[in-house]
Design brief:
The chain has helices at 10-17, 39-62, 70-89, 97-113, 121-128, 143-175, 185-223, 230-269. It has one domain (10-269). It contains eight helices and no strands. It is mainly alpha-helical. Helix content is 69%, strand content 0%.
Length: 273
C-alpha cells in the first residue's frame, strides 16, 4: 500500500517552522526549557559571531594612515558613534564597556539579518542533510535574548561592586530608594531585586518579541504562495518585498535599542544613590 504525500495546512506549516532542532529529538513543548538545548540557535548564534568577528578583523587589518575605504570608514564611524554614546551615558571608564556595547550591536544585527533569508531556503538545505526541523533566527528564540540580557545583568552587578565597593553596593541595596533606615531595609532590598529582574526580563523580551513577530509575519507571507495562483505569487512577492524593506529598520533598531539599554544599565551601575 503506497503512501501519498499530503500538503501541510497553514497551521502545520507554521508549527513546523517554529520547531527547533534540539537535543531532545522531538518538538519542544515549552518556550523555555532548561533541560533542552536548541542546537539551531547555538549554531547560528556562533556562526554570526564568527562572521561578525571576521569582518571586524578584516576592517582592523585594512586600517592605515591613508584615506580609509568605504568599508573601513563605515566601521570607524560606527565605533566612534558607540564610544561617544558610551562616554555620554557612563560616568566612568568605558574602555571595556564600549567594546561590549559594540559587540552586542553588531552581533544582534547579524543574527537579526538572517530573517531576511527566504523562509524555506535554509530549512530545505537542512533537509538535504537529514535535518527536519530548523529555526534560523537566534533572536526569535527567547533563550538567546534572555541569555544576552543576563550577561548585561551580571555586568551591571560587576560594575556596581567595582565602582562602589562591596560594602557600598550592599548598602545601596538596602538604603535606596526609601532611605537608609533599618525598618525600610527589607522594602528597599525587595524593590532593588524587582528592578534588576524587571530590567533583565524587559531587555530580553523586547528583542525576542519584535523578532518573533517579524519571523511569524514572513511565514504568513510565504503562505500566500501556497495558493498556486498568479495573484498569490504576486502578493507573496510584493508583500514580502515591502516587509523585508521595512524589516531592515527593525533589524537595526532592535540592535540599537539593546545596545543603548546596555549602556544605560551599566551607566546606572556607576551612579551613587
Amino acid at each position: 500500500m503506497s503512501s501519498v504525500a499530503t500538503t501541510p495546512t497553514a497551521s502545520e506549516y507554521i508549527v513546523h517552522h517554529l520547531t527547533h532542532l534540539n537535543t531532545s529529538g522531538e518538538a519542544q513543548k515549552h518556550i523555555v526549557d532548561f533541560s533542552i538545548i536548541n542546537l539551531d540557535t547555538v549554531f547560528y548564534s556562533v556562526a554570526m559571531a564568527l562572521l561578525a568577528g571576521f569582518l571586524m578583523y578584516r576592517a582592523a587589518r585594512r586600517v592605515n594612515s591613508g584615506v580609509p575605504g568605504r568599508f573601513v570608514g563605515a566601521i570607524e564611524a560606527l565605533i566612534e558613534f558607540v564610544y561617544e554614546q558610551a562616554r555620554s551615558i557612563v560616568k566612568g571608564d568605558v574602555s571595556q564597556i564600549a567594546p561590549l556595547a559594540l559587540s552586542a550591536f553588531i552581533w544582534i544585527v547579524f543574527m537579526n539579518a538572517i530573517d531576511l533569508v527566504p523562509v524555506d531556503l535554509l530549512p530545505k538545505v537542512g533537509q538535504l542533510f537529514g535535518i527536519h526541523y530548523m529555526r534560523v533566527v537566534p533572536t526569535a528564540d527567547l533563550n538567546a535574548p534572555m541569555a544576552m540580557s543576563i550577561v548585561v545583568l551580571l555586568a551591571s552587578l560587576y560594575y556596581g561592586i567595582k565602582v562602589k565597593g562591596g560594602g557600598g553596593f550592599l548598602h545601596e541595596l538596602v538604603s535606596a530608594p526609601f532611605g537608609a533606615k533599618v525598618a525600610l531595609a527589607p522594602f528597599n532590598l525587595m524593590l532593588q531585586i524587582i528592578e534588576y529582574l524587571a530590567k533583565t526580563v524587559a531587555l530580553g523580551m523586547r528583542l525576542f518579541g519584535n523578532m518573533f513577530a517579524g519571523e511569524l509575519l514572513f511565514m504568513l507571507i510565504a503562505l500566500l504562495g501556497a495558493t498556486t495562483t498568479w495573484w498569490g505569487f504576486g502578493m507573496q512577492f510584493f508583500a514580502g518585498l515591502a516587509w523585508a524593506i521595512f524589516h531592515i529598520l527593525i533589524i537595526v533598531l532592535q540592535a540599537f535599542i539593546f545596545m543603548m539599554l546596555t549602556l544605560v544599565y551599566l551607566g546606572q551601575a556607576h551612579e551613587h544613590h
